[in-house]
Amino acid sequence: MAGSSPSSASSQGSHSVEQRVISAEAANAAVLAAVVRAGELGIRINVAVTDSGGTLAAFLRMPGAFLHSVDIAIDKAYTAAGFGFATSQWAGILKGDEALRLGMPQRARNVVFGGGLPLREGGALIGGIGVSGGSAEQDEDCARAAIAALGLAGD
């Protein structure tokens, strides 16, 4: 910044911002609600909730759920929290841009198919939820059931 010195930056106030995150109680309630919905659908899932920074806050694996889906569920939650939109939206985003279509799916932990949703409270991103074990549509259905159980608005 022209005309700015290091000392003028510190005199302008704080050098930090507040970040809202999902509570432990809400994260646990979300994974339980997703599992209840999976039971209604007759599927076995892994479900993960991350905080708004993408750090795992809660996880639950139904007995018999696919082992490889453990990391997929966690990465769906991470992707949804990291970008702030449903992982199912990636198909449309990637469709119009060849470089993105080739590059984004190669990024570690980035999931580009359905089942991950951001968690928002009052418009603020507080985390992400990821479900894996059913079809992409069933996974998203379970994630939406968790959001509804928390009384949060859907994506």
UniProtKB/TrEMBL annotation:
Its source organism is: Melaminivora suipulveris
Matching entries from Pfam families are given as:
HbpS-like
Q: Please provide the record's keywords in A-Z order.
A: Transferase
- Recorded protein name is Cobalamin adenosyltransferase
Organism placement in taxonomy = Bacteria, Pseudomonadati, Pseudomonadota, Betaproteobacteria, Burkholderiales
For this UniProt entry, the molecular function terms from Gene Ontology, in alphabetical order, are: transferase activity
Tell me which stretches of the chain form a coiled coil: none
Top-level lineage group: Bacteria
